[in-house]
Write a structure and sequence with these properties.
The protein has helices at residues 3-14, 16-28, 33-57, 72-97, 100-109, 115-148, 151-170, 176-200, 204-227. By secondary structure, it is mainly α. It has one domain (3-227). Helix 1 (3-14) runs antiparallel to helix 6, helix 2 (16-28) runs antiparallel to helix 3 and helix 4 runs parallel beside helix 9. The longest helix has 34 residues, at 115-148. The radius of gyration is 18 Å and the shape is globular. The N and C termini lie far apart (57 Å).
């Protein structure tokens, strides 16, 4: 199998997984054992496939993606700028586009309605899930896209793939206009982090930016949840 065909197969196996997890865990079987198991399976698939592919298909050694070229300054700056933009949009139109009561009800339906559980989920997403997403969507996805297309197209494609499951997930909590705005923001963030990966060939500068942005987003979510009490 050629490198291009292998890359296409890798993306075909990878990209739908997180969206299916959201559909099973948040839409079809929310707050249930079946939903939790199916959501967990798609997570294991999403994060396990790149490692299995690296070792068994590409036959390359595992690496912790050391930041030999730096990039942390860009990571911090981009994270702050993206967060300021998100916060500005929320302050301008958040009350118009987001139904706080419905948002709190949806969080409760998936088991995140209490401040303690929400804080635990936020800590996981910021400290662990953001690293895993950089590993999947920047290292693995960008690398596969680069084998199929020029770098600018690879950045756009990887950002689009990264955006898809976020659009599905935010549609659980938000209306169409808010989902569209969030999707646009995720796409821009994904493109910036993909560019950073291509420039620095490490997931860690992008992670720093991603974690700052997630901290901002979960802070807004906490304000929405607590403001409805």
């Amino acid at each position: 199998m050629t490198d291009k065909r292998k890359a296409l197969l890798a993306l075909t196996l990878l990209v739908p997984a997180p969206s299916l997890g959201v559909v099973f865990g948040m839409m079809l079987f929310p707050d249930s054992l079946a939903g939790t198991l199916l959501f967990g399976f798609t997570k294991v698939w999403l994060f396990g496939l790149p490692l299995v592919w690296l070792l068994l298909v590409d036959r390359s050694p595992f690496s912790f993606s050391p930041p030999k070229l730096g990039g942390f300054g860009m990571g911090i700056l981009s994270g702050i700028l993206i967060s300021m933009f998100i916060l500005g949009v929320y302050l301008l139109v958040g009350d118009t586009l987001i139904d706080k009561q419905a948002f709190a009800q949806k969080l409760t339906a998936i088991g995140l309605g209490s401040p303690l559980k929400y804080a635990a989920a936020a800590l996981y997403w910021i400290m662990i899930n953001s690293v895993l997403e950089e590993y999947v969507w920047r290292w693995f996805c960008v690398t596969q896209c680069e084998r199929l297309m020029p770098k600018p197209a690879a950045v756009a494609a990887s950002a689009l793939f990264f955006t898809l499951h976020h659009v599905v997930a935010t549609s659980v909590y938000l209306g169409p206009i808010a989902v569209s705005l969030c999707g646009l923001g995720v796409f821009v963030g994904g493109a910036i982090w993909s560019l950073m990966y291509i420039k620095f060939r490490s997931i860690w500068p992008g992670y720093v930016s991603h974690a700052i942005v997630d901290l901002c987003i979960f802070g807004i979510g906490a304000a929405l949840l607590l403001g409805n009490r």
